[in-house]
Amino acid sequence: MQTQYPPAAQDAMAAVAAVDLVKVYGSGDTAVRALDGVTVGFTRAQFTAIMGPSGSGKSTLMHCLAGLDTATSGQALLGGTDLTRQSDRVLTKVRRERIGFVFQSFNLLPQLTAEQNILLPLELAGRKADRHLFAHLTESLGITGRLSHRPGELSGGQQQRVAVARALVSRPEVVFADEPTGNLDSRSGAEVLLFLRNSVRELGQTVVMVTHDPGAAAYADRVVLLADGKVAGEIDHPDHASVTEALRSLAAQR
Ligand SMILES: Nc1ncnc2c1ncn2[C@@H]1O[C@H](COP(=O)(O)OP(=O)(O)OP(=O)(O)O)[C@@H](O)[C@H]1O
Questions:
Q1: 48 lines ligand 1 (CB under 6 A)
Q2: Could you tell me if residue 118 is inside a domain?
Q3: Neighbours of 148 (CB within 10 A)
Q4: Which parts of the chain span the membrane according to its record (predicted)?
Q5: Which DSSP state fits 95?
Q6: What residues make up the domain containing 100?
C-alpha cells in the first residue's frame, strides 16, 4: 500500500521531512511525549532553524531526523528513505554517507590533525575527497594554515570551522547543526553562521540548525517553532525582532 504523506512532507523540494513523528521516552507514569505528532518538511538548498522553549523537542526532532535516535511512530524521511525502518547498520551508513553534523562541542578527534578530521568521514565511507571542494572550503573558512594542527592547538572558533569543513566536504544531502555557536564568542559564532548561510547560497547545501539564539536564527531562511513536542508555527525570512516576538508569544501561551 502506498503511504499517504501530508503536503509538507510530500513537497518534492523537501530534503528531510517528519511525518506525524512521535517520540515517547520511558513508559507508564514517567513517560514523556517529547514529539507529539510532528509533520514538517525541510526544503532543499534552504537554511532552516528549529527554535522553541527548553524541553519543546528540538534536539529529539533533530536526532530522529538524523538517525541518531529512533522514533516511537511516524516517519523520518531523508530523501526517499524512512529512517524509522532501518537497522542500526544502515543508519550508521546513512549518517556517514548522507548527513553532515556540526555539534556545539565540535566533536573532533584529538589525535588527528585538522585535515585528517575533515577527511575522516569520506575515508570511512571509502570515498575520495573532491580536492577542489576541500581547497574551496578550507580557504573560505580561513583554516588553510591550520590543517596540520591538532584540535588542541586550535581556538574554539577554528575547531568549529574545521567541523564545518568536515560536515560539508562530502556534499551531504543535509547538514544538521546542533547549537553550532553555543561554545563560541559572538565574532566566531557570526563567522560560522555566515559560512553556513553562504554554503546554502553558493553550494546549494541544505542546512537544519537547532538554536536558542534569535540572532543565530536570523541567518536562516526560515524558522520552525516547536512547543510541547508539536509544531507551533513558522517564520519566513526571520530577523532578530520577529524571532524574539514569536518566542515571547510562545512563552506567554504556556
Ligand atoms: N533520553 C531521555 N529520556 C527521557 N526524557 C528525555 C530524554 N531526552 C529528552 N527527554 C525529554 O523530552 C523532552 C524534549 O527534550 P529535548 O531535549 O528534545 O528538548 P529541547 O527543545 O531540545 O530542549 P533544550 O532547549 O533544553 O535543549 C523534554 O521533556 C526532555 O526532558
A1: no
A2: yes
A3: 10
A4: none
A5: H
A6: 44-55+88-252
Give the cell for residue 23: 517520540
In short, whether 211's Cβ falls inside 6 Å of ligand 1 is no
The reply to whether ligand 1 has any atom less than 6 angstroms from the CB of 59 is yes
Count of domains for the chain: 1
Q: Is residue 51 part of a domain?
A: yes
Does 54 sit in the ligand 1 pocket, CB within 6 Å? yes
- Please write the tens of the pLDDT for every residue from 88-138: 999 999 999 999 999 999 999 999 999 999 999 999 989 999 999 999 999
In a domain, residue 116? The reply is: yes
- What confidence score (pLDDT) does residue 14 get? 85
**ipTM score:** 0.97
pLDDT digits (tens, 9 = 90+) for 16-38: 999 999 999 999 999 999 999 99
CATH number of domain containing 105? 3.40.50.300
Alpha helices in the chain (DSSP H): 7-10, 58-65, 88-98, 114-124, 131-140, 156-168, 186-203, 214-217, 240-252
Protein residue closest via CA to atom 17 of ligand 1 = 59
Task: Find cell 513523528 and name the residue.
Answer: 21
